Structure formats: C-alpha cells, structure tokens
Amino acid sequence: MVNKESQTVRQFLMGLSIALAGAGLILSTILISRGGEWVKTGLRFITEAGAGLSLTWKLDGLTVFFLIVLLLGQGLSSLYALGYLKEYQEKNKSLWPFLVNWFLFLGSMFGVLLADDGFTFLLTWEMMSLFSFFLVLYEHEDPANRKSAYIYFVMTHVATVLLTTVTLYLYALTGSFSFEIWAGAVPSLSTVQLNFIFLAFFIGFGTKAGFVPFHIWLPYAHSAAPSPVSALMSGVMVKVALYLFIRLVWLTMGPGPVWWGWLFLIIGALSALVGILSASVQSDLKKLLAFSTIENVGILSMALGSAFLARTWNNVWAMDLAFVAFFWHTIQHMLFKSLLFMGAGNIIQATHTRNLERLGGLLKRMPKTGLGALIGIIGITALPPLGGFWGELTLFQSLLMNTSHLANGWSKVFLPLSIGILALVGGLSMATFVKWFGIAFLGQARSPVAEKAEEAHPIQYITPLIIGGIAILSVLLPTATLALIDLPLSVLRPGNSAMMLSALGTPLNLSSIYLILLILLTAIVFLLTKRSFHRVTATWNCGQPLTSSMQYTAGGLTNPIRVLFTKVLGSRRNVKGDFAETRYSLRSLTYEGKIKEVFEDIFYRPTIRGLLWMSSQIRKLQAGSIHLYLGYLLVTVVVVLILGR
C-alpha cells in the first residue's frame, strides 16, 4: 500500500529538482548564446559570512561547463528517482532523509563549483562530503551498507584534512583565502613549498576522484548507495574533484615541474588498469560499475597528465587535444555511467539481487532496460560510432603527439607504455561489459528471482533511453558538443580554442555519417526480417535438455583474465574433486575463487592495526593513579619553564 502523502511529496520534490535542473540548463544556454568577456574573465559575487569572512563565487566558462554536466546529471537522476523511490514507499520507509540530503548534496556541489576562495571551497566541500555520506547510508538496515558508508566517511575526511591543511598553509603565506591572490603569490614560493602544495592537492582531490591507491572507498560507496545516488556520484561528483585539479593546480599554481604531469599520467594509467581488471572479475552488478568508474577516472587523469606534459614541452596541439579528450570524455562518461547504474537499479529492484550468478535471461523479461543497457555498454567500451570512442581516440592522438618531445631516459619508456596501457584497458573493458550484459540479460534464468523478473516502472526505463538519445545526439551534432567544450577551453587556452575545435570538426562529423549509416542499416534489416518466416526450436544439446547450469558463469567468462593477471589481482582458487573408486571417476567438482584486496591488505589494514596498537599504548598513560598524573604535571611545568626561558 503506497502512502498518498508520501507519494505526493516524492513527486513534488523530485519534480522540483527536475524543474530546477531544466531552468538551470535554459539559463546556461542563454548566457552562452550571449557570449561576452565574462566567459574568459569570470563574474564574481561576494556574500558576507560574518566574523570578517566572506563567501566568494565565480562564474566563467570552466565553471559553466561543469555546471551543465551537474544540471544534466541532476535532471536525469531526479527523473529516474521519481520511479525508483516508489519501492521505498511500498516498504513504508521514510523518504525524508533521502530527499533532504539529495537537495543539500546537489546544492553543495553547486557551491564547490562556484567557490572562488579557500574558505568557501572548504565549507562547500565538507557539505558535499557529509550529505553524500548520508545518502550512501540511506539503506542503513543492511550492515554491509553501514560498513561501506563509514569507509567512505573516513576516506573522504582524510582528504578533507589534507585540503584544510594546504588551504590554511596558503592563507598563512598570503594572508588571504582568494584563489587569485594565491596565484599571484606562486612565483615567490620555493620549489619545496610548491611541491608540498601540489601533493596535498593531488592526494586530497585524488581520494575523492578515486585515484589508485586512494580508491578503496569507491566500490563500497557506489555499490551500496541507492542507484540514483550512484549515478550522481559516479557521473558527477568524481568530476567535481577533477574540476578542482584544473581550477587550483592548472590555473592557480600555473606551470610546475615536469614530474607533475608524469604523476598524473602514471597514476591515471595505474588507476585505469587496476580499475578495469578489478571490474572484470566482479560478480556484483554495481561493484563492477564502480570499479569501471575508477578506470574512467584514470583515463581522465591520463588526459590531464598529457596536458601538463604538453604545456611543459610547449606542445600546443597535444595540450589542446588532451583537454578536448578530457572534456569530451567527462560528458560521455556522465551519460553512459548514469545510464548503466540506472539499468543496474532496475535489475536489482526486479530481482532483489546484485549477484550476476543469479541473473540471466532478463532481455526477454526486461527488453527496454536491456536496450538502454546495450547503448550504455557500446558507449562505455568506446566502440564507434558513439561518443566514448571519439574521446579516447583524441586522447591517443594527444599522447602520440607528445612522443615527438620525448627526452632521453624514462620518458621514452613511460609515454609509449601509457599508450599501450590505454589500448589494453580498452580491450579489457569490452570483455568486462560483455560479461556484464551477457550474464545478466542473455541465456536462461539462473535463479527463480530472475525467472520472475518484470520490467521496471516506465520512468525507470524511459530515463536511460533518454540518456541514450542524448548520447547519440552529442555525436550526431558534434558542433554543439564542441561549442560546449569551447567554454572551458576559452579559459584554459584563450584565443586558440576555436581554431583547434574547427580542425577537430571534420573527424567528428564523420561520426555523424557513421551513425546515420548504422541507423539506416538497422532499419533495413528490421524491415527485411519483420515479415519473414521464423522457426523457433530448442537449442541442440546432444539430445540432452538444456539447463541454466550449462551456461557460462560470470566468473568463468572472465577467468582467463583472472589467470593472466593473477599477481596483480591477488587471485586465489581452491578446486576440490569428489572421486569414486579411481581418480578417473569424478562424482562432483567444487571450485572456489577469491580476489585479494591487494591495496587494503598491503597498506590500509596494516595502517589501521598500527593506529589501534598506538592507541592502546597511549591508553596506558591513563592508569588511574593520582601520583602518575601529578608526575605528568611536574614534567609539563619543567618543560614549559625550560622553553619559556
């Protein structure tokens, strides 16, 4: 029984969120169409916060680009949530904690994007972290979800501590929180100071973005959160952290040592490879998508690394191509990953399981969800003619152009190696999502829950199809997409972005031709086969009835990857056979495979154990003895007297 009052609240507030997103997109379009110098120089707004502090906001082309990504993600996720939240109503679960934190989370992301000083940035950043934590914790009845939320909470606040430290350090050096004053003070800083500031920003933002090895929170949080939240966190929130790299490192700190670019490139390549390898061996529907987010964040980091290297080497074209790849892939990943998380949400609500091994045959039962998921997979695996292909192709071109500036030494190894890793990641991505789609949607149902699955609420499959349509239009109308990308480029590369984008227009227009031809061929095949005679018969299986147990399992389909990368994944397996009279007569075979959490086991768990041990040692100081406490006071007084002389 659906509570009518709760239903009205859900429809009104999610409708309001959609309306605000639509109004924001319209306003952004009007501002862009009018143009003006503000796109490059920015519009500033100041709000007095009291106690001698003020909140400073700035709107320029870079901000507008990410605001449009946020508004688009907000509108689509809110539309999907309109249907998704209905299940919570039917369970009589209060929607208020979700709805309140949803709006506060969105508002805090807006604040981070608009912030133009350190105080405003820290305030809105902390709000974004807290409200996203509450959204991840929404289904707190499940102990696994609580654990996931607390891991996210700890990791995001480790990042906040670093960001607070570097912000206060810059304030101490300059006497101001203003980004502009920080930029003016950078030339006077020593190399040690610059590197300290850069590393603090890199770890702080890299943790929120999901860079390896700071990524451990992401598979937990994204897979535990409700699907609309997963779509928003993966599609938008991790991009906010990457935006701050551009705002506070590229623009504020300016050109730095060449190793900054190498760090972005190497960590990006490592993140992409570790992310997709971990995704390939997952059987959890949403955790696989979460690891794929790490892969795509790694690709975006590689684009930033290529841009940093190109700026150091004064390679203008390679730098421009890297930024086009970055912004193009930012848009496409937001669309396709949001679509796939929504598809996963539909499957979970229909079957009440996230285990791929219990799915199968869903394409017959959920054809509209399956169609949307298929579009998302073509895009996320960078297959032509959809947009994922063109973003990665542009990144390849940027990396290849940078090879013309190779110096002697390690750069001759790392840059070509990064190109090879990007190609390898593309191949592994295809294998991973063939598994995701094939095991979930094709073949026979592997469990009763999959057998009884039904199509989701209409809004829940219409929204992914809308996203698929937007993704297709972004390629059919590349001029409009490139015009959007021109906004941040006008801030990062004033005066040269239009020339570079016009040169890119030709290959991207070819994508429109490919897509139109693909649609025409699909339509022709459909028309030719629509009225033809079909004979439906059972699959031949040597005279034996075909059962679900004869199909590939999720683990079996990508087992060659697990075997090939055993050392990287920390893969372990245990095979037991039950034999009859001889070792050639096998009654049954049991296989158990496990993936070791390499980074958790090597770094995080030993660190936690060390902190707990240190805490237990410090606790001994509180022995409850008055004589011991008086001794502490005496030592303190002596130390103060000595230091005060």
Structure overview:
- 73% of the residues lie in helices and 5% in strands.
- Among the domains are: 218 residues, no CATH class; 38 residues.
- The protein is built from 27 helices and four strands.
- The chain is mostly helical and 645 residues long.
- The strands form two sheets. The protein has a two-stranded antiparallel ribbon. A two-stranded antiparallel ribbon has the order 3-4.
- α3 runs antiparallel to α20.
- The longest helix is centred in the middle third of the chain and has 36 residues.
- A hairpin with a 6-residue loop joins β3 and β4.
Please indicate the percent range of residues in DSSP E strands (runs of 2 or more): 5-15%
Shape: globular
Our count of helices gives: 27
Distance between the termini: 76 Å
Question: Unreliable stretches, pLDDT < 50, 5 or more residues?
Answer: none
Query: Mean pLDDT score, rounded?
Result: 85
Strand order of the largest sheet: 1-2
Number of strands: 4
User: Which structural class do you get from the secondary structure elements?
Assistant: mainly alpha
- Rg result: 27 Å
Helix content: over 70%
- Largest β-sheet summary: 2 strands, antiparallel
Which key terms come to mind for this protein?
645 residues, mainly alpha, two-stranded antiparallel sheet, 27 helices, 73% helix
Question: What is the topology?
Answer:
Blueprint lengths: L3 H31 L3 H4 L1 E8 L2 E7 L1 H24 L1 H5 L5 H19 L3 H19 L6 H32 L4 H7 L5 H19 L7 H8 L2 H25 L6 H23 L4 H28 L3 H36 L10 H4 L1 H14 L6 H16 L8 H31 L6 H4 L6 H19 L1 H15 L4 H34 L23 H4 L1 H6 L1 H4 L1 E9 L6 E10 L2 H22 L6 H18 L2
Antiparallel strand pairs: 1-2, 3-4
Helix pairs in contact: 1-3, 3-5, 3-11, 3-14, 3-20, 3-21, 5-6, 5-11, 6-7, 7-9, 7-10, 9-11, 10-11, 10-13, 11-13, 11-14, 12-13, 12-18, 13-14, 13-17, 13-18, 14-16, 14-17, 14-20, 14-21, 16-18, 16-20, 17-18, 21-22
